[in-house]
Amino acid sequence: MSTFGIEEEFFLLEQATYRPATPDPATARSLLAIGAESGGTQQELLACQVENATPVCTTGVEADFSLSSYRDELARTAAKLGMIPISCGTLPSIPAGAARISDNERYRRIQAFAPGICDEQYISGLHVHVSIPDAESGIAALNSLRRWLPLLAALGSNSPYWRGEDTGFASWRTIRYRQWSVQGIQPYFENARDYYKRLAAILASDVVLDSGHISWAARLSSRYPTVEVRVADAQLKAGDSVLLALIVRALVEASRDEAPVGDNLMPETLDLALWQSAKHGLVGPQLDPVSRHRVTARTAVETLLKHITPALAANNDTVYVTEGLDRLLRTGTGAERQRRSFAQGGLSQVILDARRELTAGSAPDNPTAAPHGTKEYLRPESPLF
């Protein structure tokens, strides 16, 4: 059973205006102190964002407890500080002018390097790490994941609004992300040597500041012995984040039992499939990167589920994932739920419902549900990383 970890990003809004919050130094320190016992808080590019990472998890129960506990603490602390936290792929309504960048040296360098992008980088994502025994296993997983990444983007779509308007996309974050120099679905790699050779060539260019700018939808982590999948939007509910994480783990584990995946997928088809997933989410057709034919969202999900069923069963994740996928097909992704909120009361209702969903199904007061075993975080243990 592979271990996994989840990173979630959140927006912070002023309670009175719903505008992006601009924490002063004392407020920022209070925010960074949140969750010190359960994963901790980190700065993000924008001052109105924070990020949380779970400890290393073995089960969905552990992950759900960690995410829900953190969200509860974030909501309580933010309320005392006059702020509202929400978890969406884009901030639905943003003010004119440049976004305020966090007081962090690396982020200041990024802003100086690409101010036109950073000034409107009101996007938040969900990142899932799955442990791998070595780099070659990671490359096999990256190659296998390529065909599934567009569907993962559809399942994780949660960003239909931008500057107060419906963009016509379920995941506008995916479209906005295409502005960066290295993005989209990762290429096929022959082996780990090929992967690192390509990374070295990219990093030697003058358009990538560091490895963090290599923003493929999936990559080998530069910090941990993991595959990192970063294709989904930040999720309204903790349970949806866990659902996506368990699917990603199953896909990584399934790659170990399948024949090596060849370079048989057309890059332009993968790019189209990702764009179409960002456009439709689960309410329109999907482009199957293998057959290159249009399929329904339900057919795409059923194909995915068939592929990962053995891995789900081995991890006792079958019920959680099958019920979660059925729920998304019936009640909609975050994008669909945001649109229903807008229909009921405009952008204010979108924010209010996102605030409610942040802590919906919060962690039980049951110590047996808390993560057991090691409380360490994903740490680089292999010299290959």
* Separation, N- and C-terminal Cα atoms: 21 Å
Count of beta strands: 13
CATH architecture annotation:
2-Layer Sandwich
- By helix and strand content, what is the structural category? alpha+beta
Helix content: 40-55%
The CATH topology: Creatine Kinase, Chain A, domain 2
C-alpha geometry:
globular
Integer-rounded radius of gyration: 20 Å
Number of domains: 1
Q: What does the average pLDDT come to? A: 91
Give the C-level CATH assignment: Alpha Beta
Overview of the structural elements:
The protein has 385 residues and is α+β, with helices and mostly antiparallel strands. The chain has a single domain (4-362), classed as Creatine Kinase, Chain A, domain 2. The protein is 44% helix and 14% strand. The strands form four sheets. Strands 1, 2, 3, 4, 5, 10 and 11 form a seven-stranded antiparallel beta sheet that branches. A two-stranded antiparallel sheet has the order 6-7. A two-stranded parallel sheet has the order 8-9. The longest helix is centred in the C-terminal third of the chain and has 25 residues, at 334-358. The two termini are 21 Å apart.
Briefly characterize the structure.
With 385 residues, this protein is of the alpha+beta class.
Give the SSE layout.
Blueprint: E1 4-14, H1 25-32, E2 41-43, E3 49-53, H2 60-80, E4 83-86, H3 105-113, H4 115-118, E5 125-131, H5 135-145, H6 149-155, E6 161-162, E7 165-166, H7 172-177, E8 182-184, H8 192-203, E9 214-216, E10 218-220, E11 226-233, H9 238-257, H10 267-280, E12 286-287, E13 294-295, H11 297-314, H12 318-331, H13 334-358
Parallel strand pairs: 8-9
Antiparallel strand pairs: 1-3, 1-4, 1-5, 2-3, 5-11, 6-7, 10-11, 12-13
